[in-house]
Design brief:
single chain, about 220 residues, 7 helices, about 25% strand
C-alpha cells in the first residue's frame, strides 16, 4: 500500500512539473476557450451553497480559472484558499487575483498535492476542483477531498466526460478520464449528489465537462 501511495504521489509531482513547463500555453488555452464565462453563467444560475465567512478550497487552481469565477460570482465575504502543485501556474493565478477581486475577498495560496492536502480534517465548508482528479487514483482523490470537508459541507467537482474532444485533451495534457460508472460509484461512497449539470453543447466547456455538486453527510 505504501508503494502504491508513493507511486501516486510521484505521478502528481510529474504533473506539477509538466504544468510548470506548459503554464503559458495552458493559460492561453483558457483565455480562448471561454471556460471562465461558462463558469460565471453556471454559478449565477446555480448559486453555490455558501454563507458569510465560509471556508472554500480550490483544489488544483491552475492559473486561476475557477478561483476567478468564484471571486466574480460570490456575493458574500468568504475565506478562499487556492492550492496547486505547479508553482508557475499558481504565480499566474495570484497575479490575476490581485487584479480581479471585485469584492476584495480574502484569498491565500499554498503549494501542495491533492493526495496529501496540507490542512486538518473538516477544514473547509466547500471544496471545488476541476481538471485535477483525472491525474490521481479516483478513490484516493475523493477520500482526501472528503477528509477536509466539514460534515454537511459541499464538493463541487467538474469531471471530464468521455468525448472525442476529451481524447485529444488527454494527449495534450497527459491525464486520463475516469469511467463515468466508476466516478458515480466513488462519488456516492463519499457524498450525496445534490445536482448533476450538463453544460450546453454550444459552450466549449460542454464538449468535455459536467458539474457535480455533492454534500458530505
Amino acid at each position: 500500500m505504501a508503494e502504491y501511495v508513493l507511486t501516486a504521489t510521484k505521478t502528481q509531482a510529474r504533473a506539477g512539473s509538466f504544468y510548470d513547463r506548459i503554464e503559458r500555453f495552458y493559460d492561453l488555452s483558457f483565455k480562448l476557450n471561454g471556460y471562465g464565462r461558462s463558469l460565471d453563467r453556471y454559478m449565477e444560475a446555480h448559486p453555490l451553497p455558501v454563507f458569510e465567512n465560509a471556508r472554500i478550497l480550490d483544489a488544483g487552481c491552475g492559473t486561476g480559472t475557477l478561483t476567478l469565477a468564484l471571486l466574480r460570482t460570490l456575493r458574500v465575504p468568504v475565506k478562499l484558499t487556492a492550492i496547486d502543485l505547479s508553482a508557475s501556474s499558481m504565480a499566474t493565478a495570484r497575479k490575476y487575483v490581485n487584479k480581479n477581486n471585485p469584492q476584495q475577498q480574502e484569498v491565500r495560496f499554498a503549494q501542495g498535492n491533492v493526495l496529501a492536502l496540507p490542512f486538518p480534517d473538516d477544514a473547509f465548508d466547500l471544496v471545488v476542483t476541476s481538471g485535477v482528479l483525472e491525474y490521481v487514483p479516483l478513490e484516493d482523490g475523493f477520500t482526501e477531498m472528503a477528509r477536509v470537508i466539514s460534515p454537511g459541507g459541499y464538493f463541487l467537482h467538474l469531471p471530464m466526460r468521455p468525448t472525442a474532444v476529451t481524447t485529444l485533451l488527454e494527449l495534450l495534457f497527459r491525464f486520463k478520464v475516469h469511467p463515468p460508472d466508476e466516478l458515480a460509484e466513488t462519488t456516492d461512497r463519499h457524498f450525496q449528489v445534490v445536482s448533476h449539470y450538463r453544460f450546453p453543447p454550444f459552450q466549449i466547456i460542454g464538449w468535455s465537462k459536467t458539474a457535480v455538486l455533492a454534500q458530505k453527510i
